[in-house]
Design brief:
alpha/beta; Rossmann fold; 2 domains; 25 helices; 5-stranded parallel β-sheet; elongated
Length: about 500
C-alpha cells in the first residue's frame, strides 16, 4: 500500500483499501459532512463557535438549524457584527483531511470525478492514479463581492492559450479555465457583501445552487459541484449599493439576522478578546474595570443616540479601537513623566476622539453640531452611566462643597502621578471614595489618581460640578433649579437610568 509520510494513501488503489472512507466518500456531500460533524459536536456538548460572544441564544441556534437542514444561508447584519468571523468558523466543522485527485483544479472526488481530465486520468492510470489531500483550511474559499467581478471570475472562461498549447479544439471541456466557484468544489464558498455583486453575476449562481450546471461562453459544461454556499450582507446598503435579486434570495435556504451585543458584559468580553490590550511594554499597564466599562458604554450610548445614523450602525470595532487608543495614550503619558505604571484615565478617553469620530455616521442634526462635539457628549454620557452604576446613592456632598466654597482643580496630564495625588488629597473625602472602586491605600499613585479623576468626571457628567478647558473642575453655576416635573429634569433622569 502506497502511503505518504503522514500515513495517508497516495494512490487510488491504496485509497480503496480504506473501506469506510471508500464506502461513504462517493455519496457524502459537503453539507452531509458538515451536518454529521455538527451532530457529533452537539452530542459531545463541545463549543460550536468559540470566540463568538452574545449569539448563543439568538444567531448560533439559527446557524445550527441551517447546517442541520443542509441549507445555503445568508447572514444579514450591520457592520461589525462578526458575520465574516462566524462563517469562517464553519470550516472547523469540516473533516480534518479529504482526498482528491492530485493536480485537479476543482479538487475532484477520486470515486466520483466530474471533470473530463480526471475521468481520462483514472481511465488511463487506474489504481495508480495519484491522490493528494485537502486540509479543512484549504476547503474554505472567500470572495469579497465588488461591482467589477465578472462571470469569468466566478464560473470560468475558455482559455484559448491553453487550447493552443494542448492542440485541442477550443470547444473541448479541457480548454476551460475554472473560476472561483468550481475551484471551491467540495468545500465552503463564502461571498461577503452580496448586494455589491452585479445582478447578472447573481444570475450565474442560480444553476450552480439548484441544478449544478453552468454555461461557459455558450458551451454547456455539466458541473454538479459539491458546495456549501454562505453569504453576508448589510441590509441597509441594498438601496445605496445594489440589491440581492429576488430569484437568488428564493434559492437561499435560511436568512439569519445578526445583531450587536445586547448586554454590556457581552460587549466588554468581545472588546477584551479582540483588542490589543495585553501588549509588551517597558512599564506595567493596568486598565481599570470602570474605564473598560465606560469605553463599552460609549458604543451602547452611540447606538441609542438619535443624532447617530442607525441604518449605518455603530460597529463593535469602535470600542475595540477606542480601548487600544486609550491604553496607548496612558502608555505615552507614563513613559514621558516617568511613572512605573500606565493607568488609563477618563482624560485618555477624550484623547481617543480620532478613533471615535471616524466610526460615527451622523444624521442631519448631528452633522450640524459636529462629530467632535457629539463624541464628547457621548463620552460624558457614558461616564455618567458607569458612575451611576457604581456610586448610586453615595453621598458626595463633601466633595461638591469643596468646589462650592471656591475650590478649583486643573489636572495636567504632564504631571507625575505623585504630584496629582497631592492636589487631589486637598479635596475633602475624594480619595476615600476611591475605595468603592476596589482600591486600597497601597495602590500606586497612578491607580488612585485615575480613580479620583473618574469620580470628578462622574460628578461633572451629572452636573454636580463644572469643568472647562481653562480652569478645570469648578463649582457648577446654579441657575433656576428645575422642579421634578421639568422636562429637562425628566430627560436627565432617563439618560442615567
Amino acid at each position: 500500500m502506497t502511503k505518504s509520510a503522514a500515513g495517508l494513501p497516495e494512490t487510488l488503489g491504496a485509497l480503496r483499501n480504506y473501506k469506510d472512507l471508500a464506502a461513504k466518500l462517493p455519496q457524502r456531500t459537503v453539507k452531509d459532512e458538515l451536518r454529521e460533524n455538527l451532530i457529533c459536536r452537539l452530542q459531545k456538548h463541545e463549543p460550536l463557535f468559540p470566540g463568538i460572544v452574545g449569539f448563543d441564544d439568538t444567531v448560533v441556534p439559527q446557524v445550527v438549524n441551517a447546517v442541520l437542514s443542509r441549507h445555503n444561508f445568508i447572514l444579514l447584519g450591520l457592520r461589525g457584527q462578526a458575520k465574516t468571523r462566524l462563517i469562517r468558523m464553519l470550516a472547523t466543522l469540516l473533516d480534518e483531511r479529504v482526498p482528491y485527485i492530485a493536480g485537479c483544479e476543482i479538487r475532484d472526488n477520486p470515486f466520483a470525478p466530474i471533470c473530463k481530465s480526471c475521468r481520462d486520468k483514472i481511465h488511463k492510470l487506474g489504481d495508480d492514479t495519484p491522490i493528494a489531500w485537502l486540509s479543512r483550511e484549504e476547503r474554505y474559499v472567500e470572495k469579497l463581492a465588488t461591482p467589477d467581478v465578472t462571470i469569468a471570475d466566478m464560473i470560468g472562461d475558455i482559455d484559448p492559450i491553453k487550447a493552443a498549447r494542448a492542440g485541442q479544439n477550443i470547444a473541448d471541456e479541457l480548454t476551460v479555465h475554472y473560476g472561483l466557484l468550481p475551484r471551491a468544489n467540495r468545500g465552503i464558498f463564502a461571498i461577503n457583501e452580496l448586494p455589491d455583486l452585479a445582478g447578472k453575476i447573481q444570475v450565474g449562481l442560480f444553476n450552480i445552487m439548484q441544478e449544478g450546471d453552468v454555461q461557459i461562453k455558450g458551451y454547456p459544461v455539466r458541473l454538479p459541484l459539491d458546495l456549501m454556499l454562505v453569504f453576508t450582507a448589510n441590509p441597509e446598503d441594498y438601496t445605496a449599493r445594489g440589491k440581492i435579486i429576488t430569484p437568488l434570495k428564493d434559492r437561499i435556504g435560511s436568512e439569519i439576522r445578526t445583531h450587536y451585543p445586547v448586554a454590556l458584559d457581552h460587549g466588554m468580553a468581545i472588546t477584551e478578546q479582540e483588542s490589543w490590550a495585553k501588549r509588551t511594554a517597558p512599564i506595567e499597564i493596568r486598565v481599570p474595570s470602570y474605564i473598560r466599562e465606560a469605553v463599552e458604554q460609549l458604543a451602547f450610548s452611540a447606538r441609542e443616540d438619535k443624532r447617530v445614523d442607525k441604518r449605518s450602525g455603530v460597529s463593535q470595532r469602535l470600542p475595540i479601537s477606542v480601548l487600544e487608543n486609550v491604553i496607548s495614550n496612558a502608555e505615552r503619558r507614563a513613559l514621558s513623566i516617568g511613572d512605573a505604571v500606565a493607568v488609563p484615565r477618563v482624560m485618555d478617553i477624550y484623547a481617543a476622539l480620532p478613533s471615535i469620530t471616524g466610526k460615527l455616521e451622523l444624521e442631519y442634526e448631528g452633522e450640524l453640531k459636529g462629530g467632535d462635539a457629539i463624541a464628547r457628549e457621548l463620552i460624558r454620557l457614558a461616564v455618567g452611566k458607569v458612575y451611576t452604576r457604581i456610586f448610586d446613592g453615595e453621598n458626595m456632598s463633601t466633595i461638591i462643597q469643596w468646589f462650592e466654597l471656591g475650590g478649583s482643580l486643573k489636572l495636567d496630564e504632564t504631571q507625575p502621578s505623585s504630584d496629582m495625588i497631592k492636589q487631589l488629597s486637598g479635596i475633602q473625602g475624594l480619595l476615600e471614595k476611591t475605595k468603592l472602586l476596589g482600591l486600597g491605600a497601597s495602590e500606586p499613585d497612578a491607580v488612585r489618581a485615575a480613580a479620583a479623576e473618574f469620580i470628578l468626571e462622574g460628578l461633572y457628567a451629572h452636573r454636580r460640578i463644572s469643568r472647562n478647558e481653562e480652569i478645570g473642575y469648578t463649582a457648577e453655576v446654579r441657575r433656576r433649579e428645575p422642579g421634578p416635573d421639568d422636562p429637562k429634569a425628566k430627560a436627565q433622569r432617563r439618560n442615567y437610568q
